[in-house]
């Protein structure tokens, strides 16, 4: 179980660190993120500004808490709470017909979609898995090969999540593919 916890920690650290850095790397990046939160139409403009600040602060907190084994359970719990809030906000925005771009990882122009819900629910599963696995007392991770494999899997998974919009766009059928499929039916 120790390697599973390490993999969950490392993946979430990578995802939340990338998310935080892309939002605060400059005034324009943060302003774009803040405007995207407002464009979701879930909160008033003043509450959206507070939610944007809370998001960045919470994401940075997740990274800091997950780094240390002693605070990792709190980090997993905070990650789960944030992901629940993000998922609800996206679901409400979609229900309201909003298609604002998701600026979760910077400059993506991909509009909100169900794929963002799937991504967040997957990350929520990772958070809860790390929390549950960490609650089970096991021997500490001491095998270098196991540790290396855990970190490698976490790195690939984090990269996949960070580039999720690009991967989803690659897998989405083009308009001409949908047209040909419809004609064959």
TrEMBL record:
- Localisation per UniProt entry: Membrane
* Segments crossing the lipid bilayer: 74-96, 117-138, 144-162
Pfam assignment, any one? MauE
Task: Tell me the keywords, alphabetical order.
Answer: Membrane, Transmembrane, Transmembrane helix
The signal peptide annotation in the UniProt record is: none
Give the membrane topology, semicolon-separated if more than one: Multi-pass membrane protein
- All copies of domain Methylamine utilisation protein MauE, residue ranges: 1-132
User: Is this entry keyworded Transmembrane helix?
Assistant: yes
Name assigned to this protein: Methylamine utilization protein MauE
Q: Which organism is it from?
A: Phytohabitans aurantiacus
């Amino acid at each position: 179980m120790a390697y599973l916890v390490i993999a969950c920690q490392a993946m979430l650290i990578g995802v939340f660190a990338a998310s935080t850095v892309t939002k605060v790397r400059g005034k324009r990046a943060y302003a774009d993120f803040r405007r995207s939160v407002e464009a979701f139409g879930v909160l008033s403009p003043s509450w959206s500004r507070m939610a944007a600040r809370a998001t960045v602060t919470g994401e940075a907190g997740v990274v800091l808490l997950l780094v240390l084994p002693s605070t990792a359970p709190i980090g997993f719990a905070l990650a789960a709470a944030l992901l629940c809030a993000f998922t609800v906000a996206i679901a409400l925005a979609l229900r309201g017909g909003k298609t604002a771009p998701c600026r979760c990882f910077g400059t993506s122009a991909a509009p909100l979609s169900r794929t963002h819900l799937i991504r967040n629910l997957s990350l929520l599963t990772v958070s809860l898995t790390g929390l549950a696995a960490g609650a089970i007392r096991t021997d500490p991770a001491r095998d270098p090969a196991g540790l290396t494999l855990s970190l490698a899997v976490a790195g690939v998974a984090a990269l996949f999540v960070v580039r999720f919009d690009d991967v989803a766009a690659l897998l989405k059928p083009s308009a001409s593919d949908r047209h040909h499929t419809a004609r064959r039916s």
